[in-house]
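agent> fetching stored inputs for the magnesium ion docking request
agent> found them:
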Amino acid sequence: MTHWLLPTDRQSLPQAATTNKDKVTFLKTEIKKPSYEVLCEAAELIKNGEVVAIPTETVYGLAADAYNPEACAKIFKAKGRPQDNPLIIHICDLDMLKNSVKDIPPLALTLAEHFWSGSLTMIFPKKDIVPDTTSGGLDTVAVRMPDNEDTLNLIKMCGVPLAAPSANLSGSPSPTTAQHVYADMNGRIPLIIDGGECKNGVESTVICFTDGGKGIKVLRPGVITAEMLSRFAKTETDKNVFAKPDENEKVISPGVKYKHYSPKADITIVETDSDEKLAEFLNDKNDGGTYGVIFGNETGIEIPTISYGNTAYEQAHNLFAVLRKTDELGAKRAYVRCPEKTGVGTAVYNRLLRAAAFKTIIL
Ligand code: TXA
Ligand code: MG
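agent> prediction call returned; pasting tokens
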């Protein structure tokens, strides 16, 4: 991999047009393909405390200097994100990990060796250099090394980890293209780096360590599955991956408390083994504003449908784009056929449950 160095001469940077307590407004949000010059511009913006949207192999992120609390506060403002929901910090090498966290169990280094660069996020006790704004007030911080060469170069050029949540407005489906980011962030940030369509399409697997660093707990499933992790250590899946936390429950991962990934259309999951029953059920809903979001080859369905793929990988890749599509089509309701509940299907199912606010019909 090439590592580019940031030149010392300053670029001319987009300036904030207006600023008030709740929102910074830019006259224009630019979308630019990654090049050396564009990465320099992004690094300059980030060094100046601004927020830039970056491509990763999972979904697009909204990135700022993870060690700068004022810059990270701008991420929360741009997204409208609750301040107790912590950010993931993105690193380009293990020195950045060691600089940011303490008590790294040997298991973490083994997992880093196998899965980084890649979509595994690990939670560690944080060092003081990571501000409370970034960690949402927690004494832990989530860390990952993304599998995107431009973004790794950008982190290297910035010289600090980049805090980055998914680059959507809080509650909306995560963005898997620069155009999705633009739809949510136009006027809120100065620059989107357009790295094309994200490879995975769902966010990283988030884990914490249990049993004094010897065990793994999955807090959010992704394409790195519990089955894959269990080759390295005893792996359990947190109950909130598939369940709605109780009103006042103290959860490990604050993100599970919030409604997520939702388009405007009202989403319902339909669980059935029978294509005929599915067709019968959907055809009954034929009112013009109802859409079916289905696996792939189902036939006999008379309402408009959008396919989200035949395999769990395809479904993961397409899910958020398809949820956004329901809005483009003006759908009032969408029924989504339940994915597999194993392997990568668990990541798809976990996101769908939140998009549907847990509404499920079993036929
Ligand atoms: O693939 C991804 O992970 C993307 C890309 C941009 O890297 N990022 C992403 O970030 O999905 P975000 O903020 O949308 O989701 C992070 C999740 C949230 O549910 C949050 O609550 C949880 O990780 N999380 C972050 N830090 C945590 C911590 N210290 N303890 C427990 N959960 C944490
Ligand atoms: Mg998110």
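agent> quick read of the result: The CA atoms of residues 256 and 268 lie 19 Å apart.
agent> awaiting further instructions
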